[in-house]
Design goal:
Elements (H helix, E strand, L loop, with lengths): L1 E6 L7 H10 L1 H5 L3 E2 L38 H11 L5 E5 L2 H8 L3 H11 L2 E9 L2 H14 L6 H10 L6 H12 L4 E5 L12 H7 L22 H10 L10 H12 L17 H7 L2 H12 L21 H56 L1
Parallel strand pairs: 1-3, 1-4, 2-3, 4-5
């Protein structure tokens, strides 16, 4: 029986890095009997590397439906996997949206497990967990890049109102009851807990399959999903209120990224927090018992420690008006530089095309003249 490993997030735990690694090393994985398939589906703003999205393509926004209702690609996707299972013992699927959907619909896992089993495939689930206070801050920064305008505390209120699954023990229990605890693979998104020779996220992920980075895999030293901080985060939040989508203005978004990375007036700041003083500890305390229970029952840690990195009192990430104005000027200056360079390149190409067109026109004119002269004779 073939085994489908379904990587479900949680979001902001290096999912893009893992997905890009799998696609880059597709052939190397296949040589080891592991298939990371491209099933041919296409969804707006969803990268094709998220090849498990067909399972939850009906749920790109918080759903109010009481029952899990698969989308139109669901059956086709499972049938494709069934055909692949005749060739490969291991199939890898990934999509971070599943973390939310599967915890909001009690019938998700029973439905998926039954459909996989009916086609001769065993299901195992991989989930990475990130300390809740770090997750919500990273998620907020991502939402600003996606075009939202709400404040950090408004975002926290939204998570509560939508019952976003931040109780990791409850989420693990939901999955375990449906597929069996032995089929749930939990990993911690934390430098101190990564497995494998390199102790990186990628080496940790490969360790699940008994593989090592040294096994001729290609690992790109690249940041796939940069975060916005300080004045750049606030700048992006304010710009998101413009009519239209700022994401569709690549010159502006790229300029924000470039100036944040190379601002001549600032040096790299120490890590800061979006929580007001004291709130971060209070927020994390809400999950203390749940995290400890998960650590004891799923990781065998009698001390109840799920995350090893201690909570530090970080300075509050507050941007002064002076900093915001200065950095906004740099960003717009960079954007104008980019546009000016592009305009010069376009002008040069236009002039070149005009010269070629003129030459072609003169040549045609000469040909026509010769034809007329020959015709007179």
């Amino acid at each position: 029986m073939s085994t489908v490993f379904l990587h479900i997030g949680l979001p902001k735990t290096g999912t893009t890095a893992i997905q890009n690694f799998l696609r880059t090393n597709d052939e190397a994985l296949r040589r080891r009997g592991i298939c990371f398939p491209d099933l041919g589906f296409s969804y707006p703003e969803i990268h094709s590397n998220r090849n498990a999205h067909f399972l939850v393509s009906s749920y790109d926004a918080p759903s109010q439906m009481s029952h899990f209702t698969p989308g139109s690609d669901y059956t086709s996707g499972i049938e494709q996997l069934a055909r692949l299972s005749k060739t490969y013992d291991t199939i890898l699927l990934t999509d971070e949206l599943i973390w939310r959907v599967c915890n909001q619909h009690a019938d998700f896992w029973p439905t998926v497990k039954e459909d996989f089993s009916r086609h001769g495939m065993e299901l195992k689930v991989i989930a990475y967990l990130r300390r809740q206070d770090e997750f919500v801050q990273s998620r907020y920064r991502q939402r600003m890049k996606a075009g939202e305008t709400f404040s950090f505390y408004e975002f926290l209120d939204q998570l509560r109102s939508h019952n976003y699954p931040l109780d990791f023990y409850a989420a693990a229990q939901t999955i375990s009851r449906a597929i069996g605890r032995e089929n749930l693979i939990l990993r911690i998104y934390e430098q101190k807990q990564y497995q494998g020779i390199q102790h990186t996220l990628i080496s940790d992920f490969l360790d699940i399959f008994g593989l090592s980075i040294s096994d001729d895999f290609i690992v790109e030293d690249k940041l796939f999903n940069h975060s916005l901080h300080g004045s750049y985060l606030e700048m992006r939040r304010l710009l998101n209120a413009l009519p239209g989508n700022v994401k569709g203005t690549p010159t502006l978004t790229q300029s924000i990224k470039e100036i944040q990375e190379a601002n001549p007036y600032t040096q790299k700041q120490e890590k800061q927090t979006l929580f007001l003083p004291g709130d971060q500890h209070t927020f994390l305390e809400h999950f203390a018992d749940s995290n400890a229970q998960l650590a004891r029952e799923y990781f065998g840690r009698t001390d109840g420690s799920l995350f090893y990195t201690p909570l530090r009192e970080l300075p509050y990430e507050k941007t002064s008006t002076e900093e915001l104005l200065r950095d906004a000027l740099l960003v717009y200056g960079r954007a104008f530089q980019t546009l000016d360079r592009q305009n010069k390149e376009l002008k040069m190409r236009t002039e070149k095309l005009e010269k070629e067109l003129k030459k072609s026109s003169l040549a045609n004119c000469a040909k026509q003249t010769v034809k007329k002269l020959i015709g007179r004779k």
